Amino acid sequence: MRTDYCGNIDSSYVGQEVTLCGWVNKRRDLGGVIFIDLRDREGIVQVVFDPDLPDVLEVANTLRSEFCVKLSGKVRARPEGQINKDMRTGEIEIFGTALEVINKSDVLPLDWNQENSEEQRLRYRYLDLRRPVMSQRLQFRAKVTAAVRRYLEDDGFLDIETPILTKATPEGARDYLVPSRTHKGEFFALPQSPQLFKQLLMMSGMDRYYQIVKCFRDEDLRADRQPEFTQIDLETTFLDADGVMAITEGMIRNLFKTMLDVDLGDFPRMTYADAMRRYGSDKPDLRNPLELVDVADLLKDVEFKVFSGPANDDKGRVAVIRVPGGASLSRKQLDEYTKFVGIYGAKGMAWLKVNDTAAGQDGLQSPILKFLSADITDALLERSGAQDGDILLFGADNANVVTEALGALRLKVGEDFDLLEGEWKPLWVVDFPMFEEADGALHALHHPFTAPRDMTAEELKADPVNALSDAYDMVLNGVELGGGSVRIHDQAMQSAVFSILGINEEEAENKFGFLLDALRFGAPPHAGLAFGLDRLVMLMTGASSIRDVMAFPKTTTAACPLTSAPSPANPQQLEDLAIATVKKSS
Length: 586
Known about the structure:
The protein has helices spanning 54-60, 118-123, 125-128, 132-154, 195-203, 241-260, 272-279, 305-311, 331-342, 374-384, 399-416, 457-462, 491-500, 505-518, 533-541, 571-576; strands at residues 17-30, 33-40, 43-49, 68-77, 92-103, 158-159, 177-179, 187-189, 208-216, 228-237, 269-271, 292-294, 316-323, 351-354, 364-365, 390-398, 426-430, 435-438, 441-444, 471-476, 479-486, 526-532.
């Protein structure tokens, strides 16, 4: 029906006849001459209709926004002074010689000239996706997946599908269950990831697997979470952590260079312990120069119990953040920061303004200054690197509370003071703890198939609390792009991990029997990693939410306004599945 896309028409087409299809983006009547901006996936081009062709002009006069049309015309250069340098097609326009209205449009329920609610945008998603910014994001996403496929396939990876109807995988979230009609009372689970199947593929000799795959998790949502999301999933045999990291780092560097012409350079590595100590996060944003500085040893003997208590407690922590120029903060602003850290369990936030270092104690300002000797304040200023005009913000409490609260405060202050440096700051975080303690029990920090780092099964059982996992996370600008690990490939180690996690033999056989069986038949060493495709595209396009890089996402309540899903099931379907719904009592 057409000879080209609207956005492709440029000065090289001058003098040619073209036929285009698309939507009326805008219509303007300038005293008998009608201009429209015609839009399709590739962009917008200006079309002119004038009285020399009255039949065509008559049809053009009926056009309104979002009418779907087909037109033909001759490409001509725009007059001098009317070139639009902001448009790819800004040097030309089309003199319309034929026009057909394919379909009219009702008045739009969305106003493209102002912000629409997310509920409205998702309710009329097919209209929202016509907006150039949304169209461009989805096109960008398609190019990202194509580039990923090319890179991995050139490196010997095979695209292999894994089941959607399966047993639950232990990813820590609730499963979406699918009832079975043929096995009444029994359920499939939608996969939270292809974890076990990709390990089985390695045990099957496939050597290098990848898949751009849907995953499902029934969890509370936020900007970077959806009930269904997409992973770039990969697994390899006979490669260690360094080998997997080299492949995937190369893939991301290639992707940024291909798509954005950005050279990310070599990714630095940082241990989990250092990341938590210096930045209060296992996914630190290295664009932010602020760091957490430990000062407990300087404050053990002060009379101020808020400091000396945690400073003398093995499970406590006292740390400061130095904020350049922060001495200008008002008491109201400091009170707001105090409320902010309270969200993370902090009982308060002490502060120390550094007005004039040359004046000693007289150049400092703080409600707690009376508890601090000159020797201590001198030591605090030296360790933190404080300069005139700075402020020190203190955290003193249980170590986990201080780390989480100051880690969040670091991000907020960095944004408030516009401290971010550079556009892209990637890194690897490595040497994660194997387990974390909660409710008096140990839990796998990643998943129970992650191998420990440089330990035998006996050594792991003897000291699980201090064990490190052979795991790695790729982080970019404070966002975890992906994570992976070397997997357990022998029965003794897998049994040791299950034992530490309190999973008995019967439970292990029930949940993972097929995997345990596979470990008995010459299972090779294997390792892998999974990237969040939605997060990756969100970062690369500058979108604020993964919902803005997905075609048909759900709301924060896991609902679809477009299709009204979820919705009640047909009673006959429920009967076939032997399911009865129960109304909750009020």
